[in-house]
Design brief:
The protein is flat. It is mainly alpha-helical.
């Protein structure tokens, strides 16, 4: 390649930051610390041609003036490897890298989160080391994720770079139309949740989608926080920012652990003990013996559990903690029986399901209100969220149905999914709803087609809702075909409306 060709090659026209990286490596080459130098732009093969190498050296030295700190980096007086170690080993660290421009003013305290604990790390050195680390670790899963995200961000913010300042970022996006606020804050969050909760065919596919879609969730979170923290669009973001953060957190959690944060099933009657993780500890012999002695201290008490037929001495401490003593009167005398409250609760559920009385297995008489309250109170010490089983709680409590008349000729039904969890950052409970399905129906009142009368159809919809037949009982949801077909289709025509009704 001729000198003229080298001069015209755009790959040889490095930026100042790239020049610092290149010259630092070139100094090492001169000291025989390394045997080759790579062009930061191409970041591919080592530079073999001496002409090209010398041209880039001269170009960098001639084109840019370097301050004292930059000269120290280039000359090797600041050890960029041994003294400071970049530590990007989680998706939260990827987020920190992306959010450096959000930090106004003195940013080094924020940037230092990306390094192992060190003193006297200045901002310019830190940014240089981060750039170098990214270029040298492109196969690292966290860096691959970052680079994919950076590529997508640059489609919207062309000149984005993690080292830019808050002011530089503000100037790029202020008074521009690069950000579709309605898309970022409303449409995309709803779309992503719908894809996960409704369009995932099964749990395996839901888990796969959570793992594969993390980059786009991070991008969504980035743009929402850009609106909020750089452009101060609190009103636009407040509704959905927590849901966006939660979408990111469950995705990262799924990748790291293989587990899904959403509840996969909903036991409408009670807590499912079979799926509840117990400590399983047997406790010390002394602890167990105290509980056993207390049970057996009552005259005439049963020495074995009536359901498992195990002796109390053979049970672990966790089970013994749920044992209750129930009294009953007979012929003026007081008798007592010991029960495992979990077993009693299970029998209580079965009795309600079969529409039968909940009876004491020893006396065959119904348990009193005081007895059942004792069961719930004892189980609350181990399972704080447990409630009394009742037929009235058959419907999912995390699905909500809204019905309102848009006008005298239109009625709208909307189903919401409510997420109740703990915020990943503040460890505070939050409760947010996600719009799942919306059906817009004409107010059909023709008495000749009475089976299509809106009153009849309304009753059908309410019944389907109360019996969990619109969404099903598991996540991902198994949405009723009629609702899936006409979801968000606008106001249905009469023919569409009748087809919807026929599918119910």
């Amino acid at each position: 390649m001729t000198t003229r060709e080298i001069r015209k090659d755009k790959n040889n026209k490095l930026s100042k930051k790239q020049c610092i990286m290149f010259l630092t490596e070139y100094e090492k080459l001169l000291k025989n610390e390394i045997t080759e130098v790579i062009n930061p732009i191409t970041n591919n093969l080592p530079i073999q041609a001496e002409k090209r190498l010398n041209y880039i050296v001269k170009y960098c030295r001639r084109t840019y003036a370097y301050d004292d700190n930059e000269k120290k980096i280039i000359e090797g007086h600041i050890n960029t490897i041994d003294e400071f170690t970049v530590n990007i080993d989680s998706y939260d660290q990827v987020m920190t890298l992306l959010f450096i421009p959000f930090k106004p003013g003195y940013r080094i305290d924020f940037i230092e989160q990306l390094f192992l604990p060190q003193d006297n790390l200045d901002e310019k050195t830190a940014l240089y080391l981060l750039e170098k680390y990214i270029n040298e670790n492109k196969k690292n899963k966290y860096i691959k994720c970052y680079l994919e995200i950076e590529k997508e961000i640059k489609k919207t913010i062309k000149d984005f770079h993690f080292s830019m300042t808050n002011d530089e970022l503000y100037d790029l996006v202020y008074n521009t139309d690069v950000l579709d606020i309605d898309l970022i804050t409303k449409k995309l969050p709803q779309q992503y949740y719908f894809e996960l909760l409704v369009l995932s065919k099964n749990t395996k596919e839901l888990r796969k989608n959570l793992c594969n879609n993390l980059p786009k969730y991070i991008i969504l979170k980035y743009f929402n926080l850009l609106l909020r923290q750089v452009l101060y669009k609190y009103k636009e973001t407040d509704t959905n920012i927590t849901l966006v953060n939660y979408l990111y957190s469950i995705s990262a959690y799924c990748i790291e652990t293989g587990n899904i944060n959403f509840r996969l099933s909903y036991d409408s009657l009670s807590l499912s003990f079979s799926s509840t993780h117990s400590s399983g500890t047997s406790g010390t012999k002394e602890d167990k013996q105290l509980y056993v002695d207390n049970i057996l201290s009552y005259e005439g008490i049963n020495e074995v559990d009536p359901f498992s037929q195990k002796k109390w001495q053979k049970m672990n401490l966790q089970t013994l903690k749920t044992v209750i003593i129930i009294e009953y009167q007979e012929n003026g005398k007081t008798f007592r029986n010991a029960f495992n409250a979990k077993d009693l609760y299970t029998q209580w559920k079965i009795a309600i399901k079969n529409n039968k009385p909940f009876v004491n297995p020893y006396t065959r008489k119904p348990f009193t209100v005081e007895d059942t309250q004792m069961i719930v109170d004892r189980l609350k010490t181990v399972y704080p969220r447990i409630v009394e089983p009742t037929v009235r709680t058959l419907r999912r409590r995390d699905i909500e149905l809204s019905r309102y008349s848009l006008d005298e000729n239109t009625v709208i039904y909307t189903l919401y999914f409510r997420i109740e969890d703990y915020d990943q950052y503040n460890f505070e409970p939050f409760s947010k709803t996600i719009e799942l399905l919306t059906i817009v129906l004409p107010m059909y009142t023709d008495t000749e087609d009475y089976e299509y009368h809106i009153g009849i159809i309304n009753d059908k919809i309410i019944n389907l809702f109360n019996t969990n037949k619109i969404t099903g009982k598991t996540i991902p949801f198994k949405v009723h075909p009629a609702f899936l077909k006409y979801n968000k289709k606008g106001k249905l025509t009469i023919d569409q409306y009748k087809n919807f009704c026929n599918m119910l």
